[in-house]
Queue: 4 jobs
Job 1
Amino acid sequence: MIEAAVFDFGGVISASTMPLVLKATVAELKLPWPAFVAGFAKHRLLYDQGVITLSEMYDRILADAGLELDAATKARLCADDTASWLSRNEATLEWMQSLKARGLKIGILTNMAPAFAPLFRRHFADYVALADAMVVSGEVNLVKPMPEIYELLRERIALEAHELCFIDDLEINCAAARECGWQAICFKDNSQAADDLERMLK
């Protein structure tokens, strides 16, 4: 029986699934967007793990693409990246509140750089307040889909693995949760994910 719903941040709590606000800036600068997408795939987890800074991540992305930018332009990319994650999915907040009212525990398990975590706690304070346990990757130097990060959340929420349902927009992270003995739902939209969870709760 599921006793807790554990929520991802990007694409679930935040409406952003990647720094898409940046896309307009990249287009304005006439830079190749596919190079940034490839760079996010290659370097973003190191940033989320707290191994490199956001500025260092963009240094690597730009170097891989053979691009050179002045310091002010690179700072603009970093600022746009940070701002892109601040769009709130209010439907997820309402869903979390309703599940909490029904007696389920709430968890938050997110890949997130330590530099962004204070902004997350301020801008999404009402989401965070609902959490019985939370793990932020950059604060523990682990990232999804490492099994250790799932086990850390399980320990903090004090439940057995089969009692947890993880809700994430990436199937690779859901698959990793299942390998750890959790239930998991790959989030496409709030209606689909809520329907999937209700079927599991019956």
Job 2
Amino acid sequence: MNTITVPLQDRSYDVVIGSDLLQNMQSLVQQVHRATEYFFVLDQNIETTHGQCAANSFSGGVKSFVLQAIESNKTMQSVESIWDAMLKEGYDRHGIVVALGGGLTGDVAGFAAATYLRGVPVVQVPTTLLAMVDASIGGKTGINVPIAQKDGGVLLGKNLAGSFWQPALVIADVSTLKTLDDRQLRCGLAECVKHGMLGHQDVITFIQEQNEGIFARDVDILLSLVSQSVAIKANVVAQDEREQGQRALLNLGHTFAHAIEPMSALHLFHGEAVSIGLCAACSCSEALGLIDAEYSDNIRTLLTGIGLPTRLPMPIQLEDAMVLMVKDKKAVRSQIRLVLPTQDGAAVVDDIDEGAIALAWASVGATS
């Protein structure tokens, strides 16, 4: 078992990474918070498996809210439903929210905890690779917000409302990944690749060399992979908790990804959108002279080898993508701000020529 601390003064907390941790969850939670009541927010997909296993470790039982973890439910309506369920059960500030599931569940439950009675503690228990290495760490919680389209339709703007609310504890049980399907595992690997692109070639090399063991769900390999990625993110968060500077680098590829993920016709999961976004970011960076062609080719080869997409599954209109990029939460005064790879890391780049952005979109299959 590995323990990595996210050092944030009085908001510091541990990320506990190990195998078969769910059976001992109450003991782990009570080491950091002596709550009298526990309210579980459960991903519907793991309600009767990992959710039941975790609940059984708590003496006296727990109350729970089951969430269908799809992007269309990552809304204020779901948060209000959680509030309502907690109020009906009489939960007060002595209670604690336990978010158990993927990143979407953690985001929604975290936001509900941050705003219920002006804030109650939350424990994040990620059961997907993506949530373990990214979404559960750093205190970002959020929901999607409807954005009206010119044709009268509505798209959900990714994470446009939310709060910073650090968890009391993160419990990453890699045994849960044994039941995770390969597509979802690949989505988590996209975030691991992103972490590697922030100047950590050792992570890139590890993924290349241990690809077979990762998909075989080798516990030791998964422990090492998750621990490496968590350490990278914890270090960045410790230096910039509220994304005023360096933490923005964790959004590498995400401005492109957040523009395509809400497009229902593409049927993309978050990690798949990130993979395509990383490729688009490489093309943009190459056009600006920040990286060379070999760097871009190596990243595309790595993503392809994992089984992740490097191009859009069908063409989209460049204009539609640009509209959503401007709505991205990292934009400044409606000007697109991108995090782009460099030869030895990444950089936040402003005032980018629209031609370079158009070229980046064209490289992944968008049309004008």
Job 3
Amino acid sequence: MRPVILASLLGATALPAFAQEVNVYSHRQPELIQPLIDAFTAETGITVNAAFVDKGMVERLQAEGDRSPADLVLTVDVARLGEVKEAGVLQTVDDEALDVIPSGLRDDDNQWFALTTRARIVYASTERVADGEVTTYEDLADPKWEGRICTRSFTNDYNVALTAAFLAHHGEEETVAWLEGVKGNLAKRPEGGDRDQVKSIWSGECDISLGNTYYMGAMLKDDEQKDWAEAVRIVFPTFEEGGTHVNVSGMAMTASAPNRDAALQLMEFLASDEAQRIYAETNNEFPVSEGVERSELVASWGDFTPDDLPLSEISDLRPQALDLIERVNFDG
């Protein structure tokens, strides 16, 4: 991002030379967003400078303040979108082109917008778990699963969001009981990522695990992990009075946004059918645009009914959900 930094040092007269650039801070791996960047630049001629910021994005934006070179942030979880908003480093974006994103998949104040969804599903052993044996998230606390569940840390954003959704459906008392029940059914202490849990099913350490849908696509493309993927099937559990929990990747415009007009063009592009198709094919995720079909692989996993809880409600309950997870010492 050196050109942007130099422009700020040289003064306002230097800015027009860089007016057709967009600077992005991204939680997403570079290879996942590069196809989108390439397509956008080919269409508009606008250069995108993407910085991969795995940790400390909020702190970085706060420290940079009004001088931040970042125009947009791309994140991988509704919890992180909520954190960035709560930090006061975003601005409201009212734009008709973004109305294609359903209201439940955007911030109430239009400060962040979902780009793709992924379901938080159960990976089930094809050998040791019968069809229909697991149907709901509530069922994961049933003693029949004792010693049969593997999971990554429950303080991970994905599981915190799932817990927040459970909290929205059932309240605090039932959520604590559920967390204690699931913890009691673990085959081993939480560790690793979602793919590591599938490996544990393949090796016989456990029978089911929680995971995001798109990891199946990633495993099938990896020669070492393909056997893990083929040892499980995807099950779309639901809440007893709801649907399947979904999370999102999303975008937001920073409060500083030195290249606001170009950044808005990138936001409009990312919400377009073209970009949604690229997302669907590249990342094995579900498009937010109803007019864009899933990739052939994603479609093969079957249909499901997404839970209708607004993501903004899940984001708001995240701190309380994390407190409950820590209260029961889930990872201990």
Job 4
Amino acid sequence: MKPIKIAILSCNHGHARSYFGLQNDPFFDLVAVSVQPGYRDKAELYRLKDSIPKYDSDEELYAHHPDLEAVIIASANDRHLEQVRVAAAKGLHIFSMKIPSFDLNEYKEMIEVTEKAGVVCQVELEMRHHAEIMRAKDIMDSGEIGEPLSITLTNYSHNPIWWRPWQGSPEESWGKRVFLRDGDPRYRGGALADHPHIFDVVRLLSGSSFDTVFADVAPNMRDIETEDLVHISGRMKNGIIYSLDPSYANLEARVVRQVDWEIYPRIVEVTMNIVGTKGTLISDLYGKGYYFVDPRTNRYLADSPESIGIWNRRTQEFYECVRHGAKPPVGLRDHYETIAAMVAAYNSITTGKVIKM
């Protein structure tokens, strides 16, 4: 076994800290990180070993580590194209955050430069590894609930939050300032832009592609420049109806500090209903949560036994791709359709019309 020499770039994406565990992973040698200006305190907060160098720029990191083999692009969405270009030009394999780019021309360029360079580019979509998703697919494929008729998914969270402040920025989230629609002072790049997982799960479980997309927004609960309440519905090409709600529906006033994360509602809640001709499947997809009243405090709590192995599974897949030529479970080409559907949802909000894919 030969460990992969890898670095993490920028570290200002909320998931960056999830990969700091590579410093103790025998399959990887985490040689360095670059830290977006203003985020150095976070790199230290996330308890990286002092022996791992922390650079103020990608350029400085690359100059000190010419033997690097791969990078994790853990930056805000508007920096992804630039970092993919440089990494591909250096022949480095790439592990990308869940939104490579919302600009479909930029996205196509990413496909082109990585394929031309012959490097792996795997996209992070951790919900594909949840046991509940795998079990739901087994049940659907077995015919136990009959012919699937509809899939409903919610992905509730809250924002802004200290570990992802850029998500409230239209430039850093969507890529630039684009109004939601005429007469609306808000910009693209909020709740819809933050939750590709449920779009991806619909594709995975239905075994089909998006056919139509319709979306609309409600007035915001909080004072941010982007949308926080949004709903998307439509039909897949095989006829299955879908309904998606990726809203920032949980007020951060209820879960603003880590010590209070156990108070209902949880910081993140993901649910799914699948209706078939013979039955209905109902699932909590995130963290296997359960709810109870604490008799000592009379507080209504949400707790979770955690989801051990999810993050390691994706990095293990990445290792197999780099070292043994395996195909990424989610590559740029496969993920493109999910991003295109999310862009179509924003276009539907802008026009007020159903978008035909």
